[in-house]
Amino acid sequence: MKSTGLHTGEVAPGVKKVDPIIVADHVSRTFGGLTAVDVEHLEIPRGAITALIGPNGAGKTTFFNLLTGFDTPDTGSWEFNGQSLAGIPAYKVAQRGQVRTFQLTKALSLLTVLENMKLGAKDQSGENLFQSIFPFLWKKKEEEIEAKALELLERFKLLKLKDDFAASLSGGQRKLLEMARALMSDPTLVMLDEPMAGVNPALTESLLEHILNLKKEGMTVLFVEHDMHMVRHIADWVVVMAEGKIIAEGAPDEVMANEAVVDAYLGSHQDTDLGVVTGRIQLPEGEA
Ligand SMILES: Nc1ncnc2c1ncn2[C@@H]1O[C@H](COP(=O)(O)OP(=O)(O)O)[C@@H](O)[C@H]1O
Ligand SMILES: [Mg+2]
Fold first, then answer.
1. How far, in Å, is the centroid of ligand 1 from the Cα of 34?
2. 98-102, 147-151, 241-245, 252-256: least confidently modelled range
3. Does a structural domain hold residue 151?
4. How many domains are contained in the chain?
């Protein structure tokens, strides 16, 4: 067993982390008779890149929504940076430094790239009173927000598109914009839901670089991804969900050689999405 330095004790679902940024307990969410999420205990290591993988319908997106306050669980509690987040609305979760990316909705596509970025700024909610009493201060703030947006757009190579409608961006450029927008609020934890979906291979490399850079800058990353090549390449830790539960976690190579994980992918869930995934799980010689 290789040591990742991230966990303490034997590797198993729910294993304790040396320095967890998120600790979740008994988080469950049902839709009618379906249990979409049923997480007993999970800790996400700080300062690392953690991949959340699992077959379609495993509950990954629902779990993201719960952790970020966009959905409410039936049971459970969880902490971010040692503070309980249960019942905290999404915009406050983001203010505390935990942000998730969003796919560009139709409405946001009708805004320009720069306008989308400004929407990501941290202090925009609940400051109307402040704005109306001190318009000169707000002006300064607005200039700062714009400067920051332009800087991030440059870094993500989107600057020359700043006045274009978001709708006109390619799939890959949208993903870059989603990531850049998330950084407007100076997050400590960035959660990415399928950052590579619909991205052509030419942009894949640059997206990977951007994610690795988040870690270099001291941020923690938690991402959902189907592309096992990407998971292997950039994840420090992998958590596997199936039917709402955490069925495995550990270092990428070890998790991908784990029989329960392979079973979860090879099981009854034979849709095209999984075909791609299983095709890319490489088992060590003799263990397949
Ligand atoms: N709003 C909802 N209403 C009803 N069922 C839902 C809803 N959201 C998700 N589900 C169901 O919950 C399960 C988990 O979905 P999801 O979290 O999207 O999985 P994943 O992201 O791992 O593919 C699926 O069976 C899905 O159909
Ligand atoms: Mg999903």
1. 9
2. 98-102
3. no
4. 1
